[in-house]
Each structure stands twice: as C-alpha cells, then as structure tokens.
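Troubleshooting entry. The earlier prediction with flavin-adenine dinucleotide gave an output that would not parse, so I re-checked the input for stray whitespace and re-submitted. Clean input:
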Amino acid sequence: MKIIDILTQNKLSLSFEVFPPKTQMSFESVKLATEEIAKLKPSFMSVTYGAGGGTSKYTLDIAKNIKEMHGVPTLAHLTCVSSTKETVQKKIKDIKDAGITNIMALRGDIPAELEGVDRSNWDYRHASDLIYELKSENNDFCIGCACYPEIHPESANQKEDIKYLKEKVDAGCDFITTQMFFDNNLLYNFLYKIREAGITVPVIPGIMPITNANQVDRAVKLSGSFMPQRFKSLVDKFGSDPNAMKQAGIAYATDQIIDLYANSITNVHVYSMNKPEVAKQIQANLSDILGKDF
Ligand code: FAD
C-alpha cells in the first residue's frame, strides 16, 4: 500500500519509525522489537538507513519482515550522498524486488572525513538528485522526503531551506516528514511558510518521545531542536528517576500529538526508536482518538 493513500484517507493516523541493527549479532533482537511494534498495527512503519551504508542491507530485511509477517505498510529510507549511481541503482532495484513501494529519499549526512571536499563531481549532492532519479526510471514508488521546521543545520536561512524543499516536491515527492521538534508552534509557523511557498503535499510531523535524560543532549545535538522550558523542567525534576522520566516523556509526546490532531493535523509519525513499550503506551493513550474521521 502506498503511504500517500494512507495520508489522504481523512482518518487520524499514527505511524512508527524503527532503525535496523548495525551488526548481524543484534539482528534478532532488533527484529523482535520491530515485530512487537508491528503487532500494534500502526498506519505504517518506516525503517531508517545507515548513511555510510553500514546497515543498508538490514533496512530492507527489517522492512520486508514487517510487511510480510505483519501486513504493515513499510517505508524504506534510502540515502545517496557519497554513493555511486551504480550502488544506489542496485539499492532501488532491491527495494523494488522486495515488493516495497514507499521510499524516503534522503541525502544523508556528509561523512566527517568528507566534509569540506569538492562535491561537484559526486553522483548525488542533494536529496533532489535521488528523487529525480527515482522518478525518471520506470518506477512507481510513493516518495517521501525530509524537512526541518527549525531549518537544516547547513542552510543559511529558512527561505533558502524552503526553496530547496520545494525543489524536492517539484521533483516528485509525494509527502514530507519533519525533523523532531518539541514546540508545536514551530511546526505551525513552518506550515504557514511552506504553504505560502506553494508546497501542498501532506506533511507528517515527526515526534520524538524523550524517555531518558541521556537522550536529551543527543537529540538536541542531532536535530538542533529548541527545548521549551516546560520540557526542561520535566527533565530537571524526573531525569534521575528512569521510570518517572519515561512516564513523563511519553506524556509530553502524547500531549504534543493530541495538540497536533486538535489543530487539524491528520497524520503523526513517532520516532519510536525500537522501543515497543513506548510505542504501545503512546498508542494506548490515543486509543479513543485514533481512527476517527477527520
Ligand atoms: P537535502 O534535502 O539534500 O538538504 C540538505 C541541505 O542541502 C539543506 O541545507 C538544504 O537546504 C540544502 N539543499 C538541498 N538542495 C539543494 C540544492 N539544490 N542546492 C543547494 N543546497 C541544497 N539520515 C540517515 O542517514 N538515514 C535515515 O534513514 C534518515 N532518515 C531521516 C528522516 C527524516 C524525517 C529526517 C528529517 C532526517 C533523516 N535523516 C536520515 C537525516 C538526513 O539524512 C540529514 O538531515 C541530512 O543532513 C540531510 O538530508 P536531506 O535529505 O534533508 O538533504
């Protein structure tokens, strides 16, 4: 099933993201965790892709397993930066052969050792290069891309960031998923701006439940997201008690999601990070809300 058909069903939807194992050794435990999440029957599940290609094989293995064993529609992430055309074309063929019809087309982070090098002769410099390719081949993928309500760290300003986002949509992207954010007003302001710029495809807000204090620094570093005082107070108060922090973090994420639904957002994606108990609790918190007609 194509993700775009789920997003335009006029029903409130919830989807979860998981990541593949780094090594064969951890494959079984990751597979089990992703299956536990799949048993919740979310609207769809996305499986991330290691930028350096390290876990790329497992992305497909996990996505295929979720789809075939649990009937949950899957979205396979694919990055292209510092890859050759040949490698990326092989990956696209593998995704197609696995019967997966949804691809999240990403540039990926520039590996530290390649930062500052001349990229003019790279096969892929931007996510849009991958989207053009996915569209130009004889493919029928539903394509997603990433966006950044608080601006991509490499962008000079938001106007420029939105200009390149529009290029991705014009290249053939069907929907957009956002980077994590912890203040919904940032998302609402961003939506005004992209709609004004003529971007009309569905936007899925990405919500990251922070369930332990150690995650905070990592999440901020990774995303550059603003942490509202309300959230900081919660970490100050409960950060040293793992169970209390988990409960508070899930409640905060649930509150963000309910506010999004209440403000006419129909689809929400949760960065569930291979934590079935977190996915389960968030879904339970929304049990009488999900599936409602919009
Ligand atoms: P792009 O869209 O190419 O943008 C990157 C930067 O280049 C931006 O500053 C943009 O404004 C600029 N830009 C874009 N086009 C042009 C152009 N034509 N000319 C000049 N500048 C341009 N990483 C992974 O490794 N694996 C994953 O599975 C993964 N999943 C993600 C899912 C989501 C929802 C998000 C938000 C991010 C994800 N990432 C993942 C991280 C992502 O790879 C990084 O944020 C990366 O730095 C940018 O990828 P992009 O696809 O947004 O790049």
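This one parsed fine. Residues 48-49, 51, 77, 79, 106-109, 126-128, 146, 152, 154-155, 161, 164, 167-168, 177, 179, 206 surround flavin-adenine dinucleotide (CB under 6 Å).
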